[in-house]
Amino acid sequence: MILDPRQFIAVESPSWDALEALVRRLEKLGGRLSLDEAERFHRLYLRAGSALDRLGGLSAGAATRQRLESLLARAHAVSSSAVRRPPFDPLGWALREFPRAFQRHVAAFWLAVAATGLGVFLGAGLLVEDPRTKPWLLPYEHLRVEPHVRVAREESRPAASDADQEATFAAFLMTHNIQVSLMAFCLGLTLGVGSLILMFLNGVMLGAICLDYLVDGQGPFLAGWLLPHGSVEIPAMLIAAQAGLVLGAAMVRRESGPSMAARVRAVGRDLLLLLWGMTVLLVWAGIIESYFSQIHEPRLPYAAKAAYGAVQLCLLAAFLFLPRKREGT
Amino acid sequence: MSAPRRFTVRLAEGLRLDYELASPIARGAAVIVAGAALALGLALLRPLAGPFGVLGAGFSLGVLIAAYFALSTCYGFLSEWLWRGQTLGKRVFGLRVLDTAGRPLNAYQAVLRNLLRMVDRLPLFYGLGGGAAFLNGRWQRLGDLAAGTVVVRERRSPLPDWSALASQDLNSLRGQRRLTAQLRQACSPAEAELGLEMLLRRNQLEDGARLRLFAGLAARLKAKVSAPPELVEGLSDEQWVRAVVDVLYQAAQEEPGRAAKSGPKQAPGQGQA
What we know:
The structure holds 2 protein chains of 2 kinds. In chain A, 76% of the residues lie in helices and 0% in strands. By secondary structure, chain A is an all-alpha fold. In chain A, α1 (5-27) runs parallel beside α3, α4 (90-104) crosses α12 and α9 (166-186) runs antiparallel to α12. The longest helix of chain A has 34 residues, at 260-293. In chain B, α9 packs across α12 (237-248). Chain B is elongated, with a radius of gyration of 29 Å. The two termini of chain B are 47 Å apart. In chain B, 37% of the residues are buried. The longest helix of chain B has 26 residues, at 24-49.
């Protein structure tokens, strides 16, 4: 049946204009409606939907239909998001929500630990088997020098010789480590395989460094240098890989059940919490590495630094693994 | 040039919303604008970090490095979250990110799709993401696929301009009740709608095409009725179509009360005579 578009629009357009005014209000940052306005919004929304339906087969109403579709799409979008957003609580997320999310996906964490452990054994094994592999296993120049040479150089460095540069170094470490960790997370797109490979390669380097210093008799230096920041930095990277594995698991194709988008949406909050916790840990690790890890004997005993690192690791483990009360109980 | 890809959402209310998907070219342009805005923001950070120099030049540089990183990492998802799916570039080009159910993207989706740019950019210039978008029916890069989002073109369509129709005073068919009745009986709804649509869009048609289209429809309409020669004499094809469409749709104008109460009026071709 043909309806007269002119007449139809003349009758209906005031209600569309009223709906658009409400949509505009909701589209503004923090826009809200009163209960009466919300009811009116609902009525107008249904009425516009009905108008769109009536215009359905009418080619002469194409422009009107386009306008209505656009208006209804905006109305649908604002009404779907018109729930109160959770308050911005970065401290609460880091202290309460992050460990809960960690525990919900702890299996993925252990998988990342296993990949790193495998890499550690392989890195150490390769270096034992053939010391000529050192340049390939340790990509950073300062790690390729003989450990005792580096230790002597570090220990002879005068106090506060480059105190001014420590802040720059801390910022560089934080941003670099967060970038690498985010990449470990992003590689979860490869169904988690990329995240595991990155952790494995990280483990290879770690294993080679540890063995290199231990064989050279520099165990105390290694513990005093690595433990203070490594006890936070390495778990943070493992948590990034854990998030990547959670993402990868949600992306695995399944025969039945919710769609991939719905599965990723379901773990989205946990992913965010894991990444937020990882970021906080890496900022702390960057501060410790630049202001504390680089201070060596005779200024600071290695035993004290190693003890600090061990205590920090125990506290972090307790923070992450101790059972938490459920929300709302 | 190929037709734009569409994206349809079916709502529980029975409504069907149809969106035009943003092409990779439009999205690339938005990325360039957003990148330029970001570069400007980063340039403005430098003087802001200056005061930290009192704590040492290294401290000032450290603050700058951290601020650069924070801004470049957070810009995308913060702006998309706060502006309901838009960055500055998307605002300029009228694009918006929605989730695949037609809802605005939430904080998790905004973070996810923006962080995953790191992979989409690999190996160079969005190689992976661009490849995924071209293989995907919805132009989704990897970040969109993971977050369940699409980028659509926003439309703010005005209502049709009815002034394109004839001035009713100059329509020689007005008042010809018998002819009007014949036309309503003989013309199909599709023909009436086609005529109206052609009149509304006449200025968008190329001259030659417009003449051909109106000639074709006028001949078809003339063949349906026997109009007195004095009424059609001197009328061009377009004027004839305009006059016919006007009388086909005129009743509701004359009887607005009835149309308003009873909804759609009786259609041409449905035996109103």
